[in-house]
Amino acid sequence: MSDFSTSSLADFLHLTHRSDLGLVAARWTRPTSSSELRAGYQTLLRYAATSCDSCCRWLVDSRRRVQVDARDVHWLTEEFYPALRQHLHAHVYLAFLLAPYQLDQVQDDTLPSLPYTHGDYCSLNQFTDEGEAVRWLVAQR
Length: 141
Fold this sequence. Notes:
This protein is α/β, with parallel strands linked by helices. The chain has four helices and seven strands; from the N terminus they run βββαβαβαββα. β1 (about 5-10) and β2 (about 15-20) form a beta hairpin.
């Protein structure tokens, strides 16, 4: 049996389940529009809920996404993240993999510093090194 299962959404998101590590990797493959971003996150949620028996550790590789609109950040924090527990029935851990230049772009005084636990439904952290991100996720068992 393979330790991997994969899926893709059009040409902008590639999903992989790493059963050996107990996580889902979501890799944005290019910059996305707001509607693509939201569709991608909804697909990631469905994939995590069905493909890997409610996998609650997510590696989100955003290095190719370039920029995130403030309205999308609001949608993620106010609508998407709170819905995670009701769909997955567990706390979700999200490790965002960013390029070093993106760290300056994601600084927003209205958002809490990372790592951050958002309600009782998710915890977020950001990394520039994939190995560190995976180690953080695996430690969240």
